[in-house]
Amino acid sequence: MTGKHFVVASVFALSSTSAVAAHALSSGAASTAWAADPSKGCALCHSGGTAPTVTFRKTDGTAVSTLSVDRASTVDLIVRIAGGQTLGSFNVAPSAGATVGELKVSTDALVKTIVGASSYTELTHTAAKAYTAGAAEFRFTFDPNATAACDSTVTLTAWGASTDGAGATTGDNAASSTLAVTVTCADTGPADTGPADTGSSADTSVADTGSVADTEVTDTGSSTADTGSTADTGTTPEAPAAEDDGCGCRTPRSTPSSASGFGLVALALGLLSRRRR
Fold it and tell me: Engineering a disulfide at 162: which of 85, 90, 113, 125 sits with its beta carbon 3.0 to 4.6 angstroms away?
Protein backbone atom coordinates (compact mmCIF):
# COMPACT_ATOMS: atom_id res chain seq x y z
CA MET A 1 0.00 0.00 0.00
CA THR A 2 1.38 3.35 -1.03
CA GLY A 3 1.60 6.25 1.40
CA LYS A 4 -1.27 7.98 -0.33
CA HIS A 5 -3.50 4.95 -0.01
CA PHE A 6 -2.48 4.56 3.65
CA VAL A 7 -3.50 8.13 4.48
CA VAL A 8 -6.84 7.71 2.78
CA ALA A 9 -7.46 4.43 4.55
CA SER A 10 -6.51 5.94 7.90
CA VAL A 11 -8.86 8.89 7.43
CA PHE A 12 -11.64 6.53 6.42
CA ALA A 13 -11.00 4.36 9.45
CA LEU A 14 -11.06 7.35 11.83
CA SER A 15 -14.21 8.66 10.22
CA SER A 16 -15.85 5.29 10.47
CA THR A 17 -14.82 4.96 14.12
CA SER A 18 -16.22 8.42 14.94
CA ALA A 19 -19.46 7.63 13.14
CA VAL A 20 -19.80 4.31 14.98
CA ALA A 21 -19.08 6.03 18.32
CA ALA A 22 -21.57 8.78 17.60
CA HIS A 23 -24.18 6.28 16.54
CA ALA A 24 -23.53 4.16 19.63
CA LEU A 25 -24.10 7.16 21.95
CA SER A 26 -27.13 8.49 20.08
CA SER A 27 -29.36 6.57 22.45
CA GLY A 28 -27.69 7.97 25.56
CA ALA A 29 -24.48 7.69 27.54
CA ALA A 30 -23.39 7.24 31.16
CA SER A 31 -20.78 9.51 32.71
CA THR A 32 -18.34 6.61 32.51
CA ALA A 33 -17.99 7.49 28.78
CA TRP A 34 -15.82 10.48 29.72
CA ALA A 35 -14.17 9.02 32.80
CA ALA A 36 -10.77 9.71 31.18
CA ASP A 37 -11.42 13.45 31.62
CA PRO A 38 -14.61 14.24 33.60
CA SER A 39 -14.02 17.98 33.20
CA LYS A 40 -14.67 17.68 29.45
CA GLY A 41 -17.77 15.52 29.73
CA CYS A 42 -19.63 15.21 26.42
CA ALA A 43 -17.12 17.61 24.87
CA LEU A 44 -14.53 14.86 25.09
CA CYS A 45 -16.15 13.49 21.92
CA HIS A 46 -18.33 16.28 20.54
CA SER A 47 -16.42 19.25 19.16
CA GLY A 48 -16.16 21.68 16.31
CA GLY A 49 -19.57 23.27 16.73
CA THR A 50 -20.92 26.08 18.90
CA ALA A 51 -21.20 25.31 22.63
CA PRO A 52 -24.76 25.51 23.99
CA THR A 53 -25.98 26.98 27.28
CA VAL A 54 -27.08 24.32 29.78
CA THR A 55 -29.26 25.14 32.80
CA PHE A 56 -31.32 23.39 35.48
CA ARG A 57 -34.83 24.76 35.70
CA LYS A 58 -37.94 24.29 37.76
CA THR A 59 -41.08 23.35 35.87
CA ASP A 60 -42.22 26.99 35.88
CA GLY A 61 -39.12 27.83 33.82
CA THR A 62 -37.10 29.43 36.63
CA ALA A 63 -33.36 28.69 36.36
CA VAL A 64 -31.88 27.34 39.62
CA SER A 65 -28.43 26.46 40.91
CA THR A 66 -29.54 25.56 44.46
CA LEU A 67 -32.75 23.94 45.66
CA SER A 68 -34.27 22.65 48.91
CA VAL A 69 -36.72 19.76 48.98
CA ASP A 70 -38.32 17.99 51.93
CA ARG A 71 -37.26 14.36 52.19
CA ALA A 72 -40.92 13.32 52.24
CA SER A 73 -41.51 15.00 48.84
CA THR A 74 -40.29 14.80 45.26
CA VAL A 75 -39.44 17.56 42.82
CA ASP A 76 -39.72 17.72 39.02
CA LEU A 77 -36.84 19.41 37.22
CA ILE A 78 -35.74 20.24 33.68
CA VAL A 79 -32.37 20.26 31.93
CA ARG A 80 -32.48 22.91 29.17
CA ILE A 81 -30.01 22.96 26.29
CA ALA A 82 -30.19 26.20 24.32
CA GLY A 83 -28.23 27.52 21.34
CA GLY A 84 -25.49 25.86 19.36
CA GLN A 85 -26.82 23.42 16.79
CA THR A 86 -30.32 21.95 16.24
CA LEU A 87 -30.53 18.82 18.40
CA GLY A 88 -30.02 18.27 22.13
CA SER A 89 -28.94 15.27 24.17
CA PHE A 90 -27.99 15.04 27.86
CA ASN A 91 -26.79 13.18 30.95
CA VAL A 92 -27.51 13.96 34.62
CA ALA A 93 -25.49 12.30 37.36
CA PRO A 94 -25.43 12.77 41.17
CA SER A 95 -22.28 13.21 43.23
CA ALA A 96 -20.31 9.96 43.11
CA GLY A 97 -21.79 7.44 45.49
CA ALA A 98 -24.57 9.82 46.65
CA THR A 99 -27.41 8.18 48.59
CA VAL A 100 -29.30 11.38 49.49
CA GLY A 101 -31.84 10.82 46.73
CA GLU A 102 -32.52 9.10 43.42
CA LEU A 103 -32.95 10.37 39.87
CA LYS A 104 -36.09 9.04 38.20
CA VAL A 105 -37.90 9.24 34.88
CA SER A 106 -40.85 11.62 34.90
CA THR A 107 -43.25 12.17 31.99
CA ASP A 108 -40.64 12.66 29.27
CA ALA A 109 -40.62 9.71 26.84
CA LEU A 110 -37.09 10.59 25.66
CA VAL A 111 -35.56 10.18 29.15
CA LYS A 112 -34.32 6.91 30.63
CA THR A 113 -32.21 5.69 33.56
CA ILE A 114 -28.72 4.34 33.06
CA VAL A 115 -26.20 2.82 35.46
CA GLY A 116 -23.24 5.05 36.22
CA ALA A 117 -20.08 4.60 38.25
CA SER A 118 -20.42 2.62 41.50
CA SER A 119 -23.80 1.37 40.19
CA TYR A 120 -25.73 4.55 41.06
CA THR A 121 -28.51 5.78 38.81
CA GLU A 122 -28.01 8.46 36.16
CA LEU A 123 -30.37 9.82 33.51
CA THR A 124 -29.79 10.19 29.79
CA HIS A 125 -31.73 10.49 26.51
CA THR A 126 -33.23 7.68 24.47
CA ALA A 127 -32.72 9.83 21.35
CA ALA A 128 -31.60 13.33 20.58
CA LYS A 129 -34.42 15.89 20.83
CA ALA A 130 -35.03 18.48 18.12
CA TYR A 131 -34.93 22.09 19.27
CA THR A 132 -38.15 24.03 19.79
CA ALA A 133 -37.71 27.81 19.85
CA GLY A 134 -33.94 27.35 19.93
CA ALA A 135 -33.76 24.85 22.81
CA ALA A 136 -34.34 21.26 23.86
CA GLU A 137 -35.65 20.39 27.34
CA PHE A 138 -35.53 17.07 29.21
CA ARG A 139 -37.78 16.60 32.24
CA PHE A 140 -37.06 14.29 35.19
CA THR A 141 -37.74 13.77 38.91
CA PHE A 142 -35.51 13.91 41.97
CA ASP A 143 -36.79 11.66 44.78
CA PRO A 144 -35.07 12.22 48.17
CA ASN A 145 -34.20 9.25 50.33
CA ALA A 146 -36.78 9.08 53.15
CA THR A 147 -34.00 8.31 55.65
CA ALA A 148 -31.54 10.92 54.37
CA ALA A 149 -29.89 13.01 57.06
CA CYS A 150 -31.59 16.37 57.52
CA ASP A 151 -29.92 19.18 55.55
CA SER A 152 -27.74 16.77 53.59
CA THR A 153 -26.79 17.93 50.09
CA VAL A 154 -26.22 16.21 46.77
CA THR A 155 -24.76 17.86 43.67
CA LEU A 156 -26.32 17.03 40.31
CA THR A 157 -24.21 17.58 37.20
CA ALA A 158 -25.89 17.94 33.82
CA TRP A 159 -24.01 17.67 30.53
CA GLY A 160 -25.84 18.84 27.45
CA ALA A 161 -24.64 18.21 23.91
CA SER A 162 -25.83 20.30 20.98
CA THR A 163 -25.50 18.33 17.73
CA ASP A 164 -26.12 18.94 14.05
CA GLY A 165 -27.70 15.56 13.34
CA ALA A 166 -25.02 14.52 10.85
CA GLY A 167 -24.23 11.35 12.78
CA ALA A 168 -20.60 12.30 13.51
CA THR A 169 -18.97 13.92 16.54
CA THR A 170 -17.71 16.87 14.53
CA GLY A 171 -19.81 20.00 14.13
CA ASP A 172 -21.17 19.49 17.67
CA ASN A 173 -20.30 20.82 21.10
CA ALA A 174 -21.29 20.47 24.75
CA ALA A 175 -21.49 22.33 28.08
CA SER A 176 -22.45 21.55 31.68
CA SER A 177 -24.23 22.94 34.72
CA THR A 178 -24.60 21.91 38.39
CA LEU A 179 -27.43 21.97 40.90
CA ALA A 180 -26.97 21.63 44.68
CA VAL A 181 -30.03 19.95 46.21
CA THR A 182 -30.45 20.14 49.99
CA VAL A 183 -32.76 17.59 51.58
CA THR A 184 -34.65 19.05 54.53
CA CYS A 185 -36.76 17.49 57.26
CA ALA A 186 -40.25 18.73 58.07
CA ASP A 187 -41.03 19.77 61.66
CA THR A 188 -42.86 16.74 63.10
CA GLY A 189 -43.44 18.29 66.53
CA PRO A 190 -46.97 19.00 67.77
CA ALA A 191 -48.78 21.63 65.81
CA ASP A 192 -48.88 25.04 67.48
CA THR A 193 -52.52 25.49 68.50
CA GLY A 194 -52.01 28.71 70.47
CA PRO A 195 -54.08 31.72 69.42
CA ALA A 196 -52.64 33.86 66.72
CA ASP A 197 -50.77 36.82 68.18
CA THR A 198 -52.45 39.95 66.82
CA GLY A 199 -50.59 42.33 69.11
CA SER A 200 -52.95 41.85 72.04
CA SER A 201 -56.03 39.84 72.83
CA ALA A 202 -59.16 41.03 71.17
CA ASP A 203 -61.19 43.28 73.59
CA THR A 204 -64.50 41.53 74.14
CA SER A 205 -65.54 43.58 77.21
CA VAL A 206 -68.71 45.68 77.22
CA ALA A 207 -68.22 49.01 75.55
CA ASP A 208 -67.39 51.72 78.12
CA THR A 209 -69.90 54.57 77.77
CA GLY A 210 -68.36 56.64 80.60
CA SER A 211 -70.30 55.10 83.48
CA VAL A 212 -73.39 53.08 84.17
CA ALA A 213 -76.49 55.00 83.14
CA ASP A 214 -77.87 57.10 86.12
CA THR A 215 -81.37 55.80 86.94
CA GLU A 216 -81.83 57.81 90.20
CA VAL A 217 -84.76 60.19 90.65
CA THR A 218 -84.01 63.70 89.55
CA ASP A 219 -82.57 65.74 92.49
CA THR A 220 -84.90 68.70 93.21
CA GLY A 221 -82.83 70.15 96.13
CA SER A 222 -84.15 67.91 98.87
CA SER A 223 -86.32 64.86 99.03
CA THR A 224 -89.36 66.77 100.44
CA ALA A 225 -90.40 70.32 99.61
CA ASP A 226 -89.37 72.67 102.52
CA THR A 227 -92.27 74.95 103.57
CA GLY A 228 -90.27 76.80 106.32
CA SER A 229 -91.43 74.96 109.43
CA THR A 230 -94.32 73.01 110.81
CA ALA A 231 -97.45 75.12 110.78
CA ASP A 232 -98.23 76.82 114.25
CA THR A 233 -101.84 76.16 115.19
CA GLY A 234 -101.65 78.30 118.40
CA THR A 235 -103.47 75.71 120.50
CA THR A 236 -100.66 74.60 122.74
CA PRO A 237 -101.34 76.03 126.27
CA GLU A 238 -98.73 78.48 127.60
CA ALA A 239 -97.68 78.02 131.23
CA PRO A 240 -97.60 81.35 133.18
CA ALA A 241 -94.28 82.53 134.55
CA ALA A 242 -93.64 82.47 138.33
CA GLU A 243 -94.14 85.88 140.13
CA ASP A 244 -92.61 87.23 143.37
CA ASP A 245 -95.39 88.33 145.85
CA GLY A 246 -92.99 90.27 148.10
CA CYS A 247 -93.08 87.91 151.00
CA GLY A 248 -90.54 85.46 149.82
CA CYS A 249 -93.10 83.36 148.17
CA ARG A 250 -93.60 82.88 144.55
CA THR A 251 -97.06 82.40 143.43
CA PRO A 252 -98.00 81.65 139.96
CA ARG A 253 -99.43 84.52 137.98
CA SER A 254 -102.96 83.94 137.03
CA THR A 255 -105.81 85.71 135.52
CA PRO A 256 -108.13 87.69 137.81
CA SER A 257 -110.65 85.56 139.77
CA SER A 258 -112.35 85.32 143.14
CA ALA A 259 -109.30 83.62 144.61
CA SER A 260 -107.09 86.57 143.69
CA GLY A 261 -109.49 88.94 145.46
CA PHE A 262 -109.01 87.22 148.79
CA GLY A 263 -105.29 87.52 148.32
CA LEU A 264 -105.46 91.30 148.01
CA VAL A 265 -107.53 91.61 151.18
CA ALA A 266 -105.05 89.56 153.13
CA LEU A 267 -102.23 91.71 151.81
CA ALA A 268 -103.98 94.89 152.90
CA LEU A 269 -104.60 93.55 156.38
CA GLY A 270 -101.01 92.63 156.79
CA LEU A 271 -99.83 96.11 155.88
CA LEU A 272 -102.25 97.69 158.32
CA SER A 273 -101.08 95.50 161.20
CA ARG A 274 -97.46 96.60 160.64
CA ARG A 275 -98.35 100.29 160.85
CA ARG A 276 -100.05 99.90 164.21
CA ARG A 277 -97.04 98.48 165.76
Answer: 85
Please tell me the distance from the alpha carbon of residue 143 to that of residue 124, in angstroms, as a whole number.
Answer: 17
Alpha-carbon distance of 89 to 174, in angstroms, equals 9
Cα–Cα distance, 28 to 77 (Å, whole number): 19
State the residue range of the domain holding 159.
21-184
Mean pLDDT by 10 residues, the chain (277 residues): 41 38 68 92 94 97 97 97 97 87 96 90 96 98 95 96 92 97 84 64 55 56 56 57 53 49 59 59
* Angle (nearest 5°) at CA 74 between 72 and 76: 165
Residue 175, in any domain of the structure:
yes
What pLDDT is attached to residue 22?
A: 47
Query: pTM of the full predicted structure?
Result: 0.61
Q: What is the CATH number of the domain that holds 91?
A: 2.60.40.740
Q: How many domains does the chain have?
A: 1
DSSP class of residue 29? -
**Separation between Cα atoms, residue 233 and residue 61, nearest integer Å:** 114
